[in-house]
Specification:
Largest sheet: none
Number of helices: 3
Distance between the termini: 15 Å
Structural class: mainly alpha
Shape: flat
Strand content: under 5%
Number of strands: 0
Oligomer: single chain
Length: about 60
């Protein structure tokens, strides 16, 4: 499975320290797709273009 190379950057890792805490506060009923959308939006707000696993792997079906 392909992963976005941006995940290896310092900027991404620093941003994820903040975003991970925010994601922990999301309601339990939020789906995995909802979490990915939240993460993508927050990263974009921080100036980071991140592609979700679904975008990186269009031939794979994610639940």
């Amino acid at each position: 499975m392909l992963r976005d190379p941006v995940e290896q950057t310092k900027e991404y890792m620093d941003a994820m320290k903040i975003i991970s805490k925010e994601m922990d506060e999301l309601p339990q009923w939020v789906s995995a797709a909802g979490c990915q959308a939240f993460k993508q939006r927050r990263l974009a707000e921080m100036g980071i273009r991140w592609r979700t696993p679904a975008e990186m792997n269009p031939d794979i079906i994610f639940d």
